[in-house]
Amino acid sequence: MAEAYIVEALRTAGGRRGGALRDWHPADLGAAVLNALVENSGIDPAAIEDVIVGCVSQVGEQSFHIGRNMVMASKLPDTVPAVSIDRQCGSSQQALHFAAQAVMSGTQDVVIAAGVESMTRVPMGTPVILPMQAGIGIGPWPTSIKERYGVNEFSQFTGAEMVARKYGFDREELDRFALSSHRKAAAAADGGAFDREVVIIEGVDKEGNARRHDRDEGIRADASLEALGGLKSISADGVITAGNASQVCDGASGVLVVSERALKEHGLTPLARIDNLTVTAGDPVIMLDEPIRATRRALERSGRKLDDIDLYEVNEAFAPVPLAWLKEVGGNPERLNVNGGAIALGHPLGASGTKLMATLVHAIRARGKRYGLQTMCEGGGIANVTVIEAL
């Protein structure tokens, strides 16, 4: 089978809800990343054969085919096609899988996988809320599903509490993990670790004045265990709080994936090789611990052991998710989310997959390491795993 290579991986710095990126239309935000991928790689934009875009809330400004709208808002020629996909939080990670599969199959040679989510302009849950407010339908889950699983709704907040209980994590453990995420992210930002992956764009300050946006707004360098401990839990007797969960975030990201033939034809230098693509699904009620099983399957299929993996990115949707993953697969905490995670950096839903990949690719190369693994819990009890080899 042919190989698939990553030749560029970029993201915007995250914007807090109502923050620096509040004035960006999501199509323009995504277009900024598409433009940067082309400019940085030096590839002829007309050579791009498809753009696959992950986005979760495809309504309002993210409706009517956000992927195609990103292309039209960019400097790419209008001969470049696009498609918009939704695999919940793993949407752009799945976009990367589709792009790599297209290249590995020989169907295409140059594909962009990207993601975008403006959680300021299209708030989380909008696709469900709007029809319900209009009195249309009963929501995404018919009675047949509710009866099958014995629930009235599928909530990631409930799933996070279930994961914490299942794997035995108390509130202090979760808050300590959250604090670590902020500290690692602050150190990474201050040390220039994100410089290679961040597309610098124009944002606005609180007063609406234009300013350079090149740092993730969610990082709290002054975070403390005391402050985190003072936050109220989301449920009365729960352990999940706004402090040990991922932050609402605006952002876009993208990865340029090519074949070996394209490397030669366009004079491109690969950053990494795609080593394994895995997706699994399990219990849709607890839903958030599926990365554990997905990781085991990915390692089995690739013939690698976890010790072979130098760095791992496990999305910090909620603190119990990466903690459970570490506990169950026997991971080394020193290799996990080395530059912080979504608790500090934000989780722009559909953009998080290729966002994490951008961070992983550059973190591995900066350390002179070889293998990296990325995984993410997704709504409905699904999980993607991507293993890469740095070059």
From TrEMBL:
Residues 268-389 form the Thiolase C-terminal domain. It comes from Sphingomonas edaphi. Belongs to the thiolase-like superfamily. Thiolase family. Residues 5-260 form the Thiolase N-terminal domain. PANTHER family: ACETYL-COA C-ACYLTRANSFERASE (PTHR43365:SF1), BLR7806 PROTEIN (PTHR43365). Keywords: Acyltransferase, Transferase. The active site is at C89, H347, C377. Coiled coil: none annotated. GO terms for molecular function: acetyl-CoA C-acyltransferase activity. This is Acetyl-CoA C-acyltransferase. Pfam families: Thiolase_C (PF02803), Thiolase_N (PF00108). It comes from the Bacteria. InterPro entries: Thiolase, Thiolase-like, Thiolase_C, Thiolase_CS, Thiolase_N. Its EC number is 2.3.1.16. CDD domains: thiolase. PROSITE patterns: THIOLASE_2 (PS00737).
